[in-house]
Design brief:
Elements (H helix, E strand, L loop, with lengths): L1 E5 L2 E4 L4 E8 L7 E7 L6 E6 L6 E3 L7 E6 L4 E6 L8 E8 L12 E2 L3 E6 L1
Parallel strand pairs: 2-11
Antiparallel strand pairs: 1-3, 3-8, 4-5, 4-9, 5-6, 7-8, 9-10, 9-11
Length: 122
């Protein structure tokens, strides 16, 4: 499956952005989906994940209550609504697909998109 992330940009602290991840090649309903991010000079970290049906989600502690992951299997897409953004949310955000179960571990994901840059100014 090919993944294309979009929706990144420059936003002021406290603002919102909505990231989208469009899948092609295979139906996204066969995959649990996740969002990860990598800030400059830091390792990639887990942000959020959703199971195949959209019924279960997981979030990192740093984004819980501010970010919401969702999916629309009919549109073969996954979304990340990001509210109350902080400068420390600045990173390249990647969507990923996992053919197995809902997981927070990047090494479990089989397919990765190219990333979209989110910059939060103070």
């Amino acid at each position: 499956v090919q993944l294309q992330a979009s929706g990144g940009g420059l936003v002021q602290a406290g603002g919102s952005l909505r990231l989208s991840c469009a899948a092609s090649g295979r139906t996204v309903s066969n995959y649990a989906m996740g969002w990860f991010r990598q800030a400059p000079g830091k390792e990639r970290e887990f942000v959020a994940a959703v199971d195949r049906s959209g019924g279960r989600t997981r979030y990192s502690d740093s984004v819980k209550g501010r970010f919401t992951i969702s999916r629309d299997n009919a549109k073969n897409s996954v979304y990340l609504q990001m509210n109350s953004l902080y400068p420390e949310d600045t990173a390249v955000y990647y969507c990923a697909a996992n053919a197995a179960a809902l997981t927070v571990y990047g090494f479990n994901y089989d397919y990765w998109g190219q990333g979209t840059l989110v910059t939060v100014s103070s």
